[in-house]
Amino acid sequence: MADIVVPPLGDVEEVKVVRWLHDVGDEVQAGEAVAEVEAEKATFVIEAPVHGRLFAILVPEGRTAAPGDVIGKIEEEGG
Amino acid sequence: MRTVQHIPLGLVGYGEARKIQRELHRLVRAGLVEDVVLSLEHPPVITLGRGANPRHILADPEFLREQGIALIPSERGGDVTYHGPGQLVLYPILDLRRYRKDIRWYVRSLEEVMLRTAWDYGVSAIRIPGRPGVWVEGRKLGAVGVYVRSWVTLHGMSFNVDPMPDGFSYIVPCGIYGAGSTSLARELGGRVALDEVRGRMLDHFARVFGVRLREASLAELKEAVG
């Protein structure tokens, strides 16, 4: 199981999850856009760290998270 | 000193500009071309950013259609905004890994470009904490809305030089009620040449980001990639 993490975005303490681009159960490729977070009028795209299936969305759309937070999980294909 | 290619596009539709940005984003991200900044104006359009509340569009959709003003959802950050002729738009496509991997720094830098441009004309624009953009006595002079993928930027900033004043009455700019909008021309009580403002804004862009600008065309850039 791999974590989808909000990366360090510089001097940003909090982001809002504005969009999940896949549903739980969807197949995602490594590097594919999986979610968008927003801070300071900037949308930042979060990419899948590995190839697999989106297993869980831990922070739904409209909720906030901090850099370093795990916002979702990907079950690795064949792993 | 790093070079950023400035591509003046003139008047270009929102959808077309987005297509151009996406293509350039792909090239910059792959390291095939140097960073780019597009300068342009949009025909009248209202766009809804990722944080948009549709209630912040005040005008009736039918009325907007009759006026020829399109409503377009956009992946940029932020709420509802208006673009139209007389508003100067800069869309930098920068690989922030070569500058600073800091979203706040990037947004502040875009604001800085607009602030310095306003100050050149003696207009005392400022930042307001918690309200990205640049403001004159509580009225919005310039807006920021950015999209970042793999640390390469899209979208950018729009600076009201002398746009149709009605445009902003159709919306609640950035979702802030009672804030209102203004333009450089309105603050100065006269007309301002857009080309001159563009020149100053690009100079400030170069200084704020510590780059040298080189003018290029889209065709030239595509040719270089092959």
Could you walk me through the main structural features you see in this protein, from its secondary elements to its overall organization?
Chain A is mainly β. Chain A has strands at 2-5, 15-20, 27-28, 33-39, 42-47, 52-57, 64-65, 70-76. In chain A, β4 (33-39) and β5 (42-47) form a beta hairpin. The radius of gyration of chain A is 12 Å and the shape is elongated. Chain A starts with a strand and ends with a strand. Chain B is an alpha/beta fold. Chain B has one domain (2-225): BirA Bifunctional Protein, domain 2, CATH 3.30.930.10. Helices cover 31% and strands 31% of the residues of chain B. Chain B is built from six helices and eleven strands. Chain B has helices at 14-29, 61-66, 103-120, 184-188, 194-209, 218-225, and strands at 2-11, 36-41, 45-48, 70-73, 80-83, 87-93, 126-128, 131-136, 139-149, 152-160, 211-215. In chain B, α3 packs across α5 (194-209). The radius of gyration of chain B is 17 Å and the shape is globular. The mean pLDDT of chain B is 93. The chains are: A mainly beta (79), B alpha/beta (226). Chains A and B meet through β2, β4 and β5 of A and α3 and β9 of B.
